[in-house]
Amino acid sequence: xxxxxxYLLPIMLVTSLFFLWALLHNINPILIPHLRKALQLDDIQSxxxxxxxxxxxxxxxxxxxxxxxxxxxxxGIILGLVLYALGALLVIPAAASRxxxxxxxxxxxxxxxxxxxxxxxxxxxxxxxxxxxxEQRLNLAQSFNGVGAFxxxxxxxxxxxxxxxxxxxxxxxxxxxxxxxxLQSEADTVKMPYIVIAxxxxxxxxxxxxxxxxxxxxxxxxxxxxxxxxxxxxLRHPHLSWAVVAQLFYVGGQVGxxxxxxxxxxxxxxxxxxxxxxxxxxIAMVGFMLGRFIGTFLMRYIKPxxxxxxxxxxxxxxVIIAVTFDGNVALYALMAVPFFMSxxxxxxxxxxxxxxGEETKIASSFLVMAIIGGAIIPTVMGFISVFSGSIQLAxxxxxxxxxxxxxxxxxxxxxxxxxx
Length: 420
What we know:
Blueprint: H1 3-38, H2 43-46, H3 48-71, H4 73-97, H5 100-127, H6 134-159, H7 168-173, H8 176-188, H9 191-210, H10 238-259, H11 261-269, H12 273-298, H13 304-324, H14 327-341, H15 344-353, H16 360-369, H17 373-388, H18 396-412
Helix pairs in contact: 1-5, 1-6, 1-8, 3-4, 3-5, 3-16, 3-17, 4-5, 4-9, 5-6, 5-16, 6-12, 6-15, 10-15, 10-16, 10-17, 10-18, 11-12, 11-14, 12-14, 13-14, 13-15, 13-18
């Protein structure tokens, strides 16, 4: 069997995992306003969901990399799936008790599982084939992450959001029993979706147990004097250290843009939560998915770093419009941003690990740790929204993110002479 055919089934199976962490990240824009309503949270408190997810990535990425380094790709995938399924099941008692701490714990465990999956899947896809096309291969795999990105808000909007939005005055007019019944009915809508998720993930575990995955080692010959041990010294490479910074700002910007989208749509266009969820899923995140496929195609003709710079520049212009205009002009500008965000994560990732040989595994861990940006930037946005009274003004923060990404595409990605 040729190497290409030998890798086909593993690539297909591992690519399926990209859907799972897309589901985690892209159902949050539904959960944040929903739990804000069901648990009576403010914008800062509701952003703790993103913090729980991002902190899990930061805390678990290095252990995941060490686990993968010692036990291999397959066992890393299986452990990640087990954690993901257990976290999904914990959402059930969290909803029953309406205890926000339990919700945050459940999301932390789900995100811990997703951290294992991302730490394994991204470098695994990158090394399964020709190193010269690693950016294209990773963007193609991440395109299926885009499928999850557009399906998650639609599914969440249909099965989690009730569409019932009471004003503060209406809530105050309710009796204690009526208010409790209403809030519990809102919390209970999350139970069935997470039961389905847990069952699906357990089925995936059985599939991965049954299939043999090849253990692939990156070629150290291209990296002069590099240790093959699991060491933080990998950050001595400027193109990787800048990739970690760029990834932190990218993930924070992406999470911030989508997590507050429903609130933003209400603020600038007076759109209700159901319609906003539909716009996010069926337009903005469809654009995200298509952007990945189109970006993968364009990389045949445009260097990945150049395309990254072009997309970052366009995103900057769109966010400026979203911050300075009102109504549909602002809303449509923000909905266009995910198309141009689409290639950023996989392209930064692939450029960051390029030429690192067996150090790819530890480099992957640091790039996954950078997802802590998903805790920092939405929290900053939450503070700006609360203290300024404008969720629209908070979108200045993702604007800064795209400026950092533009720098990486223009200069930060360049590989030092020692590993060329």
